[in-house]
Here is the input.
Amino acid sequence: MITRVYIDNFRCFSNFEFKPGRINLLFGFNGSGKSSFMEVFDRIIALIIDGRDAPELFPGTDLTRWDTRHEQRFELDLEIDGKMFTYRTKLEYRSNWGGMALLDERVTCDDRILFSYEDGDVHLYKNDGSEGTKFSFRGNRSFIAGIEERPETMDLMRFLKHLRSLRSYKFEPTSMGSVTQEEQQTLSKDGSNFVSWYRHISQERAGDVPHLFAELTEALPGFQALALKGAGKQGRTRDLVVQMQAEGQKAYEVDFDAVSDGQRALIVLYSLLVDIGAAPRTVLLDEPENYVGLSELQPWLQCLDKALGDTGQLFLISHHPEVIDFLAPENPILFVRSGGGPVRVKRVDFDREVGLKASEQIARGFFDAQ
Here is the structure.
């Protein structure tokens, strides 16, 4: 579980620190930094898991506009299997690169160094903290992404495995087609590859599919099943169809991209629970309620809480009254930017004595000046 996040000199974040809980409801006015906060996770994952170039991920235009410094800092603290891990990195703007270069990067476990990059040198360490190999490396990307799993790197691999399991989503149903030519193991951030991802989970987790269909039957009137069918003579190409049947009527099929945006969103949201429930993980959801009706949200939120279990973690951005009221007893975090300045956060304790729901207290401006 992520226990601390530190961001400095990135967009509207300056000397920003946040210590999250297991369930975190993030709310606040538009422009208060909620989506940018989520994006930090996406970029760190792309840097140290996918191995993408730092100047591409961290362009100079993302430096805080009112700050004259050319350095950015990011830090993550995580508790994994009872051990405390810390990842930190410092980047510096290089005009000839058009973006940031790595100056310093470090992973520690219970105060033991597992990896460091400083002064242009990579230092590889063993599980006990003793130093192994040292060599020069260019700071345009993170060397962590290329480290192989070996007995002496098991703690570092445990850290990377946890970050690799993190899921970050902002779904856009209109981008989701119905045709797939291959299986894909990971659902993309916007869900545009849903059909290829569903093709994967329907094979790898076939035992969970009947339960998924049962939940969708309750959530979508007339829903019967999802089916992948051969697309003519196009080899491995498959079409995803939604099998429907209205009461007293003949069953019929509709291509996945022909059902409504709201129906596609619900199918994706419930399918996502199969992945979340498979293993403890951290999940970031940016306004998952988009396209979904009021009466459809709460049942899904209840299923989401069950899928997360005791060890999963959730960051959820929402403006939706149903979501806010459901998650208000957990860890509601207000994002605030006074006068368009740096982001600050505070935990909100909604007043239960005033007789108003949490969403109504927000709508009436109880927290605008806080």
